[in-house]
Amino acid sequence: xxxxxxxxxxxxxxxxxxxxxxxxxxxxxxxxxxxxxxxxxxxxxxxxxxxxxxxxxxxxxxxxxxxxxxxxxxxxxxxxxxxxxxxxxxxxxxxxxxxxxxxxxxxxxxxxxxxxxxxxxxxxxxxxxxxxxxxxxxxxxxxxxxxxxxxxxxxxxxxxxxxxxxxxxxxxxxxxxxxxxxxxxxxxxxxx
Length: 192
Hints:
With 192 residues, the protein is of the alpha/beta class. It has one domain (2-188): Spore Coat Polysaccharide Biosynthesis Protein SpsA, Chain A, CATH 3.90.550. The chain has helices at residues 28-37, 69-80, 98-106, 134-142, 162-166, 181-188; strands at residues 2-6, 22-23, 26-27, 42-46, 59-61, 85-90, 113-118, 121-122, 126-130, 157-160. The strands form two sheets. Strands 1, 4, 5, 6, 7, 8, 9 and 10 form an eight-stranded mixed beta sheet that branches. Helix 2 (69-80) runs antiparallel to helix 4 (134-142). The radius of gyration is 16 Å and the shape is globular. The model has no long low-confidence stretch (mean pLDDT 92).
């Protein structure tokens, strides 16, 4: 499986590149890269500002179809991946859990998508996708429908239940992502 990190967001609300924010003395991007390199044989970073990430010793690619948000990033990751499945996450998720990622990988089998179902709903940016999703995503991109979950009815989806998630994530922080300075303060103050 290929690990794909999406770092294409414009960070308008934050005003700075979220990937480089530090939590407990480590930048979020470095933390994610460490987990991915210890989990996946191949790691790809999808970004529209590759120069910022050249120091990371990763395969860096830019969106095949620009300005299509996270769905475009997933499409790009699937296209470039050497393996049939990819695990995707965003660069602004500070609480990734290698044990939970391994658990999700173990459930991939013949499914086209493996997606956690948290108390907030489906988590499409902490999910596994197969190359069989490419044509469905491409159709959505062509019609400018950028909601990731809209192609799910066309593929075989395995949901990871809230109960399964809880054993890895008792604080319910696993899918928290940083969008604002207030979010950053919550993380630094450990109010998550």
